[in-house]
Specification:
mainly alpha; two-stranded antiparallel ribbon; two-stranded antiparallel sheet; 18 helices; globular
Amino acid sequence: MAKTTTSTEIIAGIASFLATSYIIVVNPAILSQTGMPFSGVLTATVLVSFFSTAMMGLYARNPIIVAPGMGLNAFFTFTAVGVLKIPWPEALGAVCWSGVFFLLLTLFNVRVWILKAIPRPLRYAIAGGIGLFITLIGLTNAGFIVHRPATLIGMGSLTPPVVTFLLGLLVTAILVTRKIKGAILYGILFTTVCAWPLGRWWGGEMPLVNLKNWWALPDFSLVGKLDLIHSLRWAFIPVIFSFIFTDLFDSLSTLVGLAEAADLLDENGEPRNIRRALFTDATATLLAGLLGSSPGTAYIESAVGIEAGGSTGLTAIVAALLFLPFLFLSPLLAAIPAIATAPALVLVGVFMLRPVSRIQWQQPDEAIPAFLALVLIPFTYSITQGIIWGFLSWTLIKAGSGRYKELTLPLLVIDALALCALFIA
């Protein structure tokens, strides 16, 4: 482990929190479309993020944020409740049962067994794919990349917000290049300040940085409102299955990607304290169902804090403590616009792509599956899809080239799980 200092870990914790704090507002914005109260989901989101991230720091001793997952909240809202017409209390029960199943898988080392079966070239590719995914999120948040009907995506107009983003990106890049401690954090704050005049003095009708209220009372109305009994009905099994396997692939790939990119590895080359990290991830899902949120998972934006120098559990503890005040101070986060964190997300892509150089690109049987995993994560806008097709192509190409001995039983189990997740997704 690289040498670190308390001040470095604190700055890294702040940077990770700022990069992930959007979930405090975004998660309730999505889940409230099920009929759940916005304020109740916001409180649940803060509590899940605080307890889970603190556990990751204190128990697993890793600098990784754990919070309700994007994608999982969309599945909860638009598929489980929206399409399948499952009442939200029963959907919360399904979340809780999936957390119980996760805990059992972790206690019996099944998840670690699966993790160790992931071929190293795919691990490197997953890390790089997550980096490209984070970069794409940053570029779209800034409006630099936009949807184009003719070409799917394209460059947006150089509007004042986009120019502000580019200025923030340049300044942050210079700070990173000059090895300034806390460069990512300073870049976020600098871009926020630069965004203040937008919509006030120039650049649009609505201000990007708004601060109408300083505080709001927490709402605990969703705590314990899950329906555990009715969520065990046979019709709900596919929903529980989807939560389990989507979260399984997302969490495993995120933990592997961050560990490979940041060298958070043990003496055997495996992600550090992986069993404890997976136990924390499972607990987050269980806790989410009990408190009133969609499943919790490890966050790829943790890479922002790791790039800022975070390498121990102290980074996660600092970030966890920063979540807690927003039970009362959630309006403050609205003052940080998406274009302020976008430069950090873009630059993290550089950091996350480092492991890609270890892939043996001259060996097609390894390079092709790694490449598919690398590009499909951002192109499908899904970590899960990237890792599924990476696994399946690895197995099929190895089998087709006659290298059956390289196909282990755990890898074949992963392939079976990947196929299940593919057809349910």
